[in-house]
Amino acid sequence: MDAKLAGDMWKAIEPLHAVTYFSEECRTANKEAGLKGYWMGYFASRGAPLGAVSAGTIEATFFGFHPARVRRAIPDAWGFASPERILAVRGAAAARALRRAFPGIEDVAAETAPRLHEAVMAADGAGRALFAANRDLPVPDDPVEALWQAATALREHRGDGHVAVLTAEGLDGVEANVLAAAVGSGTAQWLRESRGWSQEEWDAAVAALTERGLLANGDPTEEGRALKARIEQRTDELAAPPYDVLESPRSVYEALVPAARAVSKELPFPNPIGVPPVESS
User: Fold this and answer.
1) Which of 26, 137, 206, 217 is the most buried (most CB within 10 A)?
2) Strand 219-220 to strand 215-216: parallel, antiparallel, or no bridges (unpaired)?
């Protein structure tokens, strides 16, 4: 599977996964499970497959968040709701959100969930902690929930690879966000505030990237744009192998597009997770 198709697959599965962050169903489920506030719900729900891990584990695997933002939620979250309790509600809530956003999701799930699960099971988990933790979860009986879980696992597979590329390029969490904002992958204010960085920390990262020749007057240089393009290309290349087991990955993508497009209407654009609107191709 080529990197271009892997990038397209991400654009299709990311909106399906992202209901867990933005839908009322999922935010309510986190609250009813006992979690306090949006960020505790985010870190604990996304991190629950890892178990009751430390704040440091969340900082390392999620990447890009200010440590203080993480530590206001973790490990306290596990005292309000165990990972087992969170896992019992997060997929079901996501399935409810998907059914509401796209009534035809049942047919999409029947066609694509088993095939995406096949890709999940074929993927290499080495160095991919969030992916491996999600892969080890039981496949839900509910086909829509199974679709969400497979999309989530593949999304985390790509994300784990993306973090590896960022760190290999010598970018820390705040610098990665600054570069993303500079090339237009989200607004600077939204990325800075959603990740919890102060203006002073953001400005220091701008200065560091300027010294590296990646920014000039806050705008990306040719070298900065080339680096960002290289990061995205390499991320897509690393995300591609799981789909090689599929007989026709393009047909899976095309089957997902209507659902992803419908769900995308509920997401803010631009958004702090950087996903663009999905398009058929």
Assistant:
1) 26
2) antiparallel
